[in-house]
Amino acid sequence: MTQTAHCIGFLIWPQTRPMTLALAEEALRVAQRVHPEVVYEARFLLAEPPADEAGWRLPGEPWAGRLEGCQKLFLLADEPPASVAPALASALKQLVRSGAQVGGLSAGVYPLAQLGLLDGYRVAVHWRWQDDFTERFPKAIATSHLFDWDRDRLSACGGLAVLDLLLAVLARDHGAELAGAVSEELVVERIREGGERQRIPLQNRIGSSHPKLTQAVLLMEANIEEPLTTDEIATHVCVSRRQLERIFKQYLNRVPSQYYLELRLNKARQLLMQTSKSIIQIGLSCGFSSGPHFSSAYRNFFGATPREDRNQRRSASPFEIAPAAAERG
After folding, report:
1. Which of 15, 132, 255, 269 can pair with 274 through a Cys bridge, CB separation 3.0 to 4.6 Å?
2. Residues 285-310: pLDDT tens digits?
3. What angle in degrees, to the nearest 10, is found between the helix axes of 306-316 and 291-302?
4. Contacts (Cβ under 8 Å, ≥6 apart) of 78
């Protein structure tokens, strides 16, 4: 007996990287190869006209005004799209009303959020967009999970989490045995749960598993707005100040105060690029006592003032953030 194909659509924005789409497509292709009774129809649609560029081109045809026919539709983007065309917005809302499941992969969550289709839903948002997404879409419940499946909304933060979400789709549609067979075929070490956190373990990020160093860095990350002194950190991790400085110098080639300052400045830069907070607000939230203090430290580290850096990066960005209110930095 011929199985009815389960249609999964992929609505793709320009500049989507091949890996994001390939991970999802490969999971479906392998599923059908290892279990021929599983029948998926993958449909590829372009959200916007393709750029006339040489080299690799996104698969698919421009969407033709209608999105009906897919049981699931994933929106794919690797940078947040600036807006959604009115006709496409109407078609997406109609698809949701028809009962289809919709999802966002990587920055594909942005168009759904812009249309209010994620209000009240958990949404897996890549860590580098967390601040921006939370500020722009307060009615959505942004998480730092690898992926989320909340009722009829699906989302994956990007990267390999796209494959994790598709394996979850296969498991729910056809059972855990199929998902396991696909992961084995793709040499995936293990099937990760959606609720797992995105960031890699701290010891991997700092290149050391020294317990006192790990404790100290965790303390720093938890106290950005009101920084601790080196003596306070040493006391909390039960070592002398001199010993703490030796550990940082040995493993990170910098003293604790320097590492802490760089941590706060990198957090400030992330907020500058992703939120509409004023420069002075960002400086204060990252532990700087005044605007001039923040501006001077920022310029010494990044080679530009916060205002210069924000303006330069925004002019090069494919999407806009709402103007900062009453910047006084």
Report:
1. 132
2. 999 999 899 999 999 999 999 999 88
3. 60
4. 13, 15, 16, 17, 20, 106, 107, 158
What ranges in 7-85 are assigned the alpha helix state H? 18-34
CB atoms under 10 Å from CB of 112, counted, come to: 24
d(CA 8, CA 252): 47
pLDDT of residue 324: 35
DSSP codes, 246-286:
HHHHHHHSS-HHHHHHHHHHHHHHHHHHH----HHHHHHHT
pLDDT in tens, 177-190: 888 888 888 888 78
Residue 6 DSSP one-character state? E
Residue environment code for 171-184, b if the CB has 16+ CB neighbours within 10 A, otherwise e: bebbeeebbebbbe
**pLDDT tens by residue, 246-275:** 999 998 889 999 999 999 999 998 888 877
Residue 280 has pLDDT above 90, yes or no: yes
Sign for the CA dihedral angle at 40, 41, 46, 52 comes to positive
Cβ atoms 112, 118 nearer than 8 A = yes
User: Do 124 and 155 form a contact (C-beta atoms < 8 A)?
Assistant: yes
Q: Residue 318 has what pLDDT?
A: 46
- The C-alpha atoms of residue 329 and residue 319 are separated, in whole angstroms, by 23
Structure tokens at 248: 């940082």
CB atoms under 10 Å from CB of 191, counted, come to 16
Residue type, 50: P
Centroid of chain to Cα 304:
26
pLDDT bin (cut points 50, 70, 90) of residue 117 is very high
Per-residue model confidence (pLDDT) at position 232: 95
Q: How far apart are CA 49 and CA 134, in angstroms?
A: 29
